[in-house]
Amino acid sequence: MLLELSNISKHFGAIQAVNDISLSLEAGQVVGLMGDNGAGKSTLVKMIAGNYRPSHGTMRLNGRDIVLHRPIEARQFGIEIVHQDLALCDNLSAAANVFLGRELRRGIGPLRVLDYKAMYRRAGEIFKELRSETRARDLVKQMSGGQRQAVAIARTMISEAKIVLMDEPTAAISVRQVAEVLHLIRQLRDRGILVVLISHRMPDVFDVADRVVVMRRGRKVADKPIAETSPEEVTGLITGAIEGG
Amino acid sequence: MATTLHQTIERRQRTLGGTILANQTFWVLIAVILACIFLSFATDSFATAKNLYNITRNVTFVAIIALGMTLVIITGGIDLSVGSVLCLCSMVLAVTMHAGYGIETGIAASVATALVIGAFNGVLIAYLGFPPFVVTLGMLSVARSLAMVASNNTVVFEFGPDHDKLLALGGGAVFGVANPVIYMIVLALLTGFVLRWTRIGRYIYAIGGNEKAAIATGLPVRPVKVCVYMISALSAGVAGIIQTGWLGAVTTNIGAGMELQVIAAAVIGGGNLAGGVGTAFGALVGAALIEVIRNSLGLLGINAFWQGTFIGSATILAVLFDRVRNFRQSE
Q1: Nearest partner of B169 among B229, B250, B104, B92, judged by Cα
Q2: Which residues from chain A sit within 8 angstroms of residue B326, using beta carbons?
């Protein structure tokens, strides 16, 4: 089991944002995390990404207990988050964004300069692997929503991530671009990465996810293979029309 | 499907020629060259060795500070204090040497002053979240006042035992090229190198492009910002040292209003006050255009009162290119 959450809770003062959640997630899976606004999805994901520390419960990665104090520590464990606003620099090239903060350099000792060639080549290879039309030298400013997602995802790939958390990657982009992003998510899964997909969009989750976890008022109300459920049932679980276990 | 995808990836979105034609710095450079050609024919005095020597030397002081300012502007900031910092650093140098210390001590004191001021600006802006405009506006006032205090508002023109060394530093020439020009070229190459080939240069652009993203990615945003304000103040200090050597005297009103010329040079050369854009070469080209305009008005016998109109119009016109391009892109 790649990631195991045991009895994780998080409260902010009197507010119980996440209540006693246990999850076991395997590598090479896409897990849709669904729930209404305020259901606790973001809080849960932020605990996995190291933004918050759980009030109770433990997290295990590959069978080892981990405690995350800061996002950078999560990254060192191979946990990457792709933010909703993508956090890209419009004025830089795709390759520059992919390698931002981890620039490749050449030279000896203190006399090292940015290795443009290697970064363009490596970024180009990643986009090719993702089968994305993104070009490494283009400025992000000129890119479509789908291409920007590819840049954000490529960033997680150079870090050899094991877990990629995606926050609403298909919100606010066109239909064609949604297909592109779902395709990127499958590419990540096929590389053996665990993808946790937070989404409001039912069709996307049913299109790409292997499993769906539904949260309601901080609790896990369902956790089942996508083949054993339906959009109607999930909608009912989200709204509370169907009582989950 | 596979072939079309492959073709799309192979196709360069913009050709090299297209990139150059869309570049503001390129058009300003063309304007400078055309102006020089025109002036060579229209006047007898422009294309003389003496006038060209003067132009190249005059351009250096604004250009050197514009290099530092460009870094600040790329991060999305502004430094209004550079004119006063130039004055204070000149005065610290002058007073120190006047008191009998050597040129090395004078320069060290001057550079240290610049770095302390830059660090002060930077820490307030980066760590305490002050708006750059306010902090550097305050420093504009403080630095000039300190220069008056340091000199008791007198003119300093005797620089102690190393008097001649200082004058040679700023007023000399090597193979017919004025010393300040050589310093400018070296500093421009250094700035260009840092911006293009180092990580800190990359981070400066990233901060200007999307500061939140830079923070989320874990870049050292605050230290880099302190660093650019220190470099900006340092560039003003260096310009002050060179200018002192050239003028041979320091008054408390040197560099007054210079921050506006410097910002104009950076913006004319392609810097964008919204952040994320600018180059070292652009700063030089922008400073050159301002100096050529100023020089040519004199040579053409146009009343000096018109200077501001021409330089101001050039600033607006240069940015117009950028706006037109953006309008076309957004449509």
Answers
A1: B104
A2: none
| pLDDT tens column, B278-317 | 999 999 999 999 999 988 888 888 888 898 899 899 888 8
Q: Looking at beta carbons, which residues of chain A come within 8 Å of B209? A: 89-92
| Chain B contacts to A (CB-CB under 8 A) | 5, 8-9, 12-13, 196-199, 202, 205-206, 208-210, 212-214, 216-219, 276-277
Percentages helix, strand, coil for chain A, rounded to the nearest 5? 35, 30, 35
Predicted ipTM? 0.83
- Boundaries of every domain in chain B: 59-300
Which of A114, A127, A128 lies at the smallest CB-CB distance from B199? A114
**Ranges of each domain in chain A:** 3-239
What would the two tokens of residue B66 be?
């514009």
Asked if A213 and A44 touch (Cβ cutoff 8 Å), the reply is no
- A29: closest CA of chain B, how far (Å): 26
Where does A3-239 sit in CATH, by number? 3.40.50.300
pLDDT in tens, B153-175: 899 999 999 999 999 999 888 88
Would strands A211-216 and A219-225 be described as parallel, antiparallel, or unpaired? antiparallel
Q: Do B235 and B219 form a contact (C-beta atoms < 8 A)? A: no
Of B8, B198, B276, the CB nearest to A114: B198
